[in-house]
Amino acid sequence: MNKKIVVFGGGTGISYLLKGLNLFPVDITAVISVSDNGSSTGKLREEFLMPAMGDIRKVITSLSDVDTKIKGLLEYRFNTYSDLNGHPIGNLIMVAMYNMTGNLKESIEVLRKFLNIKHKVLPLSEDYLTLMGETYNGKIIEGEEEITKEQTKYKRLFYKEEPKIEKEVLKSILEADLIIFSMGSLYTSILPHLISEEIKNTLEQTKCPILYTCNAVTQPGETDNFTVSDHLKILNKYLNKRKIDVVIAPNTIIPEKIVKKYETKEQKDLVKIDKKEIEKLNCELIESDNLTIENSTIRHDSLKLANAVFNYIMRWFYVLYNRSKKRNMYFKPNKIRRYSTTFRISKKYRYWTKRRY
Fold it and tell me: Could you give the residue ranges of the DSSP H alpha helices within the chain?
């Protein structure tokens, strides 16, 4: 039986991760934030009073098993002087389906079958949500796009409306073998999931590990000078009782020319791996050479990243298998515990063991 993975995210980052995971024998449930109010998505969302659909379109495209030309069609943006300017065809199809069904989840299901997608794609909520941010000087920013444009650090995020989380999202969390928070904008793609009490309360009921695929570069204003542990601390703060169990951080050597371009033109730095600080958080660190350069742009290599995720979940269940067979002195039957990240091989018993903390 395939392992069940629930992936939270939004924007382009989650699409790269899902594109790779789609090649592995796992059952994926992708949960997408719906508060984006920028570009085409923002215009359509305001006109039709519906949840944001742009990030969902990207995920559907990345998971679909259809001809590349059809994928290209969904992502095609009109370049014209009319009201169609800037709108991807995929967004317009999503709006049409929403008008026909009156439900975003059902609209996604129709497209999932049409595009031969074997995995689940769920909106975080069916509600029209407005993301709000409070800066450290007390200023309140309204709207996801405005939060990004402000380029500042935020004391807290919250929704203007009380979100009602899709029930199937909560059910998927409870049934998951692994929960992933994907790379992407920390404040506008990942944290919008964790400012919901329903999500946090459900996560506290799970016993599966929580994994974070860390960003490659910082985001101007919001995460300036952030290391891997800084990202983890923010996530742990919003998670409350549950914490990140494992982080996959890229250690690819990037050409100096590309690094300088990011530092000067985009005001972005590579996210540094600070091992000692990560260790203090009782979080396992997996370093992975999973970055690639495309047209002078740093990207995650979908296949390499997905391979690192799949290796982790297989290793995790191998440990649990040994525990259930009573071959691990550190495990007790019928009782799931949380573990430290120190692995070793027992010479006497010749199996993996994990130290408890």
Answer: 11-21, 39-48, 54-63, 68-75, 89-101, 104-114, 144-150, 167-175, 191-194, 197-205, 228-239, 256-265, 275-280, 302-324
Q: Are 170 and 205 in contact (CB under 8 A)?
A: no
Contact predicate 228/214, CB 8 Å = yes
Instruction: Please give the pLDDT value at position 6.
Output: 98
Q: How far is CA 25 from CA 28, 328, 331, in A?
A: 10, 27, 28
d(CA 221, CA 214): 18
pLDDT over 70 at 350, yes or no: no
Residue 339 has pLDDT above 60, yes or no: no
Rounded to 5 degrees, φ, ψ at 306 are -65, -35
Q: In this predicted structure, what is the pLDDT of residue 326?
A: 55
- The residues, any chain, with a CB within 8 Å of residue 63's CB and separated by 6 or more, are 18, 19, 22, 28, 30, 117, 118, 119, 121
**Which carries the bigger pLDDT value, residue 4 or residue 343?**
4
pTM: 0.88
Task: Give the whole-angstrom CA distance, residue 79 versus residue 57.
Answer: 19
Rounded Cα–Cα distance for residues 165 and 201 (Å): 12
Supply 232's token pair.
């983890």
Give 62-117 pLDDT, tens digit per residue.
999 889 999 999 999 999 999 999 999 999 999 999 999 999 999 999 999 989 99
For residue 82, the 8-state DSSP code is S
Q: How confident is the model at residue 324 (pLDDT cuts 50, 70, 90)?
A: low
**Cα–Cα nearest to 182, from 309, 339, 312:** 309
With left for phi above 0 and alpha for psi between -120 and 50, is residue 102 left, alpha or beta? Answer: left
